[in-house]
Request: fold
Amino acid sequence: MLCRLPNQTAIPVGKTFVYEFEARRPGTFMYHPHADEMTQMAMGMMGFWVTHPKNQHPLIDTVQRDFCIMLNAYDIDPGSSTPKINTMLDFNLWTWNSRAFPGIDSLNVRLNDKVRVRVGNLTMTNHPMHLHGHEFVVTGSDGGPWPMAARWPEVTTDVAVGQMRQFEFVANEEGDWAFHCHKSHHTMNPMGHSVPTMIGVDHRGLISKIQKVVPDYMLMGERGMADMGEMEMPLPDNTLPMMTGTGPYGSVEMGGMFSMLKVRRDQKPGDYSDPGWFKQPAGTQAFEWTGELPQPARFKAQSTAAMPVAKPSSSTSLLKVRKPSGHAGH
Ligand SMILES: [Cu+2]
Reply:
């Protein structure tokens, strides 16, 4: 990491400095300034460094595809363009290589390619990276390639703050496979975290009354947040919709740290271009069931609690959970 700690002066505005060193260790590394670090990193000053081995390395396999993903995050108010540099956790743009879905390229590979993905995290929270359709093996971190005995199959690997994880797999399943951070708020674009949950609230008759006072008032969130993805509301300039992206079946309702792995039989070697959507063979999709539905098997309590439970003093202390359902009387 380049810094102005005791061994280096900062680079003044408009100046160019040369850093020379010998890249002795093969691996994946990250760099960023330590000069006014909080400001400069909040505004995106960071990058990847990959040192490839000169000769065949016993712990570094040859791969046909190699992807680098830098996890970074920004807090930019809707309609503005300057990141808020004091934000510590509640960022609103979760990005790969400073791009948010649907602006992130898909990872396009040829069937049976060996694929390496290097994921570095210079945000201020961890990101569990999850791949559909394949199992991968984590093969290395910032410290270098891992010994074979330290590797195991996974479908999600957590990349903690300041860490790099490098994972590999053989792309032996044709199709379009989601690849994303598994924190659901990280696959969203700007969203308000202070918005109350309105699921199941009966708004009938209420909207027309509010619209008498606020003519443009629109109701949101009655059926969850997915409606937001399809609602084409006018947004301020320089603002992304919360959930967006259009797939072969309409809105995919995603944002942020999300992309697709596209595995194709006829992708040319070394061709990273987007092959378009996969044409799924007949019989590989879910279909609607219209027959009888079996009763769900339910556990029957034996009325022997592990510990005695105090009787509720009033009905208000009974636990009630409302499920998001339109069926009255359940
Ligand atoms: Cu994340």
